[in-house]
Amino acid sequence: MSNLQLEIKNLIIDALGLEDMAAEDIAADLSLFGEGLGLDSVDALELGLAIQKRFGIKIDADAKDTRKHFANVTSLAAFVSSQQHA
Amino acid sequence: MSWLDLEQLLLTEQPARPVSLAPSLQHGELREQALRLAAGLQTRGVRRLAVHLEDTADLAIALLGAWRAGAKVLLPADLQGQTRQRLNPHVDLWLSEHPGDANLSSLLDEPLPGAILALDDCALTLCTSGSSGEAKLIDKSLRQLGNEVRALEHLWGAELGQACIVGSVAAQHIYGLLFRVLWPLCAGRVFVRRAQPFPEDLQRVSLEQPDFAWIASPALLKRMGDNLDWPALSRVRRVFSSGGALPLPAARQLRDNLGQWPTEIFGSSETGGIAWRQGGELWRPFAGVRASLNSAGALRIESPYLPSGQIEQTADGARFEADGRFELLGRLDRIVKLEEKRISLPMLEQALASHPWVEDARLGVIQAHRAYLGALVALSDAGLHALRNQGRRTLTGQLRQHLGEHCAALALPRRWRLVRQLPLNAQGKLPQAELETQLYAPRTQQPQLLGQREADGQWHLELEVPLDLAHFTGHFPQTPVLPGVVQIDWAQQLARQLIAELPPRFCGMEVLKFQQLVRPGDRLQLSLRFDASRGKLYFAYRNGAAACSSGRILLAAAHA
């Protein structure tokens, strides 16, 4: 597990109040929404804000598939690192 | 575009009157499809149609078609198993985008002729959770709905002009249905079919239009972020918000970004719209709405959006100004709103208590980045057994899964506090404030002290190991066991409270023995004796007849 993935897992736990979860409970390919971790659309909004704030990046509002990056921790980490190096 | 009352929408085809975008739909096609659906429903003898469609153009066709056929429409809030089971006695056919249900195209026949819809016979039934926790069905006639959209047009129609209506909220509820679908249909304003719950999507869809207005809710409006193109978005004609309170800072942020205060709508499924306001001012009742207070200080509503003569008693506390405007003071019952979804705490508590692991349960709201529920659960014997043998996460996971059959995911508790008995007061009640104190508190790290006595320099303590002890989380996830180091720590801490002359410095351990595991809920007898001449604190934990652990803690003066 990369440090970035671990950081994102902890961010998810803290930002969404998932008290009984630990980072190792969230597999990198576990689907965050619907079946899987079971987050909802409000969590998606919260997570979008938390990610932008923590990593100092901006989610491109013109891109049509932005929310696809939020599928799981792997895709989110790839998205964050691509934005940080952009 | 000319105004058409709701009952006139199927009368004659209106050329060049757009209905929806992406894909676009004209009035003529809407009317044709609705009349064909009406025929299909009549052929099949469908009198009561449950409709759950995310595509609001299809929803409009379904509503108008059902009304033309003389069928009643039920709008369930979701398609969960429990919801279906509860509503099935009231439903002949389910129309939805779900694979097992009927879809719109499968129900079309040769069209019925156009006609005026009957204002008092056409009915819509909304489903919401009532104060008792049972699902509540609320009937609306076409007359009531028509009165309401006419009032909205009167207030804001001129200003909206030909703005395209973009919504972030579902249309299964009264607010989304009126503002996203019925009002634009009557006004001839085009609307976007699908809800846009994310700010980036809302922006993209909006900026494709020359003019637009938003039908939104606090869940979105308080989380808009700073990555949006505010100068372009400030073309928005009006921003509506309803479903729950919009915090003033969020409203102010929008005002700063868009140059206008969002327009908040206050109402409910039962009452329809009651009042509106902008920028944290007092609420102004809609024209024709008569609002007053009952003896408990809760709003009572008479309105053209209610059946004539009906007075709707709410549980919303309020305070009136002399000019008829009012301030809201919060709910007077145990219904809470999480992100605009009405959640009945009693219903969820009953559902939790129906699980064999649960003796009793209470729920409260935790306010964090987002608000969520916390559960204080008194475990049954079976629940205690499950906790001891499968661990906390398995237990809370199963309880969440069980609750998931009774409620939407956002109502599932995220914080759990486990106890043997609820801390009820002398009246047998657990006041909500006390409950919330318990839920906000972090998980304990201390044993519960049940009794203590001293005999011949030896202390005897009766302890209970809390079910919720924070140390159990990592030790171990599947089988919670009280760590030995915590036992030593407790012995020393408790001894310091009881024995005044205990030297402060920990110097080590002797003859440490761990004989039996200590688990959540165990009753322990701890004996403590301090031998001052040797600087040794003797401790022994027993669980009834069985010795659990014992040892000697070496203590010395601070500067030795």
Summarize this structure as a short list of keywords or feature phrases.
heterodimer; A: 86 residues; Non-ribosomal Peptide Synthetase Peptidyl Carrier Protein, Chain A; B: 560 residues; alpha/beta; Rossmann fold; GMP Synthetase, Chain A, domain 3; Thiol Ester Dehydrase, Chain A; 29 strands; 28% helix; elongated; AMP-binding protein (chain B); HotDog_dom_sf (chain B); ATP-dep_AMP-bd_enzyme (chain B)
Plain-language structure description:
The complex is a heterodimer of chains A (86) and B (560). By secondary structure, chain A is mainly alpha-helical. Chain A has one domain: Orthogonal Bundle (Non-ribosomal Peptide Synthetase Peptidyl Carrier Protein, Chain A). Chain A contains three helices and no strands. In chain A, helix 1 crosses helix 2. The two termini of chain A are 23 Å apart. The mean pLDDT of chain A is 88. By secondary structure, chain B is α/β, with parallel strands linked by helices. Chain B folds into three domains: 325 residues, ANL, N-terminal domain (Rossmann fold); 106 residues, ANL, C-terminal domain (GMP Synthetase, Chain A, domain 3, 2-Layer Sandwich); 109 residues, Roll (Thiol Ester Dehydrase, Chain A), CATH 3.10.129. Helices cover 28% and strands 31% of the residues of chain B. Chain B has a six-stranded mixed sheet with strand order 8-10-11-12-13-14, with helices on both faces. Chain B has a six-stranded antiparallel sheet with strand order 24-25-27-28-29-26, with helices on one face. In chain B, strands 5-3-4-6-7 form a five-stranded mixed sheet. In chain B, strand 27 and strand 28 form a beta hairpin. Chain B is elongated, with a radius of gyration of 31 Å. The termini of chain B are far apart. In chain B, 42% of the residues are buried. The model of chain B has no long low-confidence stretch (mean pLDDT 93). Chains A and B meet through helix 2 of A and helix 6 and helix 12 of B.
